Amino acid sequence: MGVIVNKEDTKKNELSRRIDADLRERAQKTADIEGNADPDFAEDSEYVKNMKKTGRFSWIWLVLIVLAILSIISIVFI
Q1: 38 Cβ neighbours under 8 A, 6+ residues apart
Q2: In angstroms, rounded to a whole number, what is the distance separating the alpha carbons of residues 31 and 8?
Q3: Lowest model confidence (mean pLDDT) among 5-14, 19-28, 52-61
Q4: What is the dihedral of CA 14, 15, 21, 26, to 10 degrees?
Q5: Which pLDDT value is given to residue 37?
Q6: What is the pTM of this model?
Q7: Would you call 65 exposed, middle or buried from its count of C-beta atoms within 10 A (0-12, 13-18, 19+)?
Q8: Each residue of 3-15: b (16+ CB within 10 Å) or e?
Q9: How far apart are CA 78 and CA 75, in angstroms?
Q10: Cα–Cα distance measured from residue 20 to residue 51, given in angstroms and rounded to the nearest whole number
Q11: Measured at the alpha carbon of residue 7, what is the angle toward residues 23 and 18, in degrees to the nearest 5?
């Protein structure tokens, strides 16, 4: 029984390996055709054309907003 199960596992592993290789090949061909371009083209749209990326001190705004909310809550309840 163990040999039969082992042979079936080997066949399944071989099939899985072949399917994985085929999918990788197709994905590589698709990436080559598209030229590794961003598929949603968000960077190229007119809406984000003149926008600036978030700076490294943007976390300060988050802290200030949280502190403002906490202060409003403390004023209302105290």
Answers
A1: 44
A2: 34
A3: 5-14
A4: 170
A5: 53
A6: 0.35
A7: exposed
A8: eeeeeeeeeeeee
A9: 5
A10: 40
A11: 10
Which amino acid is it at 40? Answer: D
What is the DSSP secondary structure assignment for residue 11, as one 8-state letter? H
Q: State the greatest distance between any 2 C-alpha atoms of the chain, in Å, as a whole number.
A: 76
Cβ contacts of 11 within 8 Å, gap of 6 or more: none
Cβ neighbors of 42 (< 8 A, separation 6 or more) are 48
Report whether pLDDT(49) > 60.
yes
Beta-carbon contacts of residue 44 (< 8 Å; ≥ 6 apart): 38
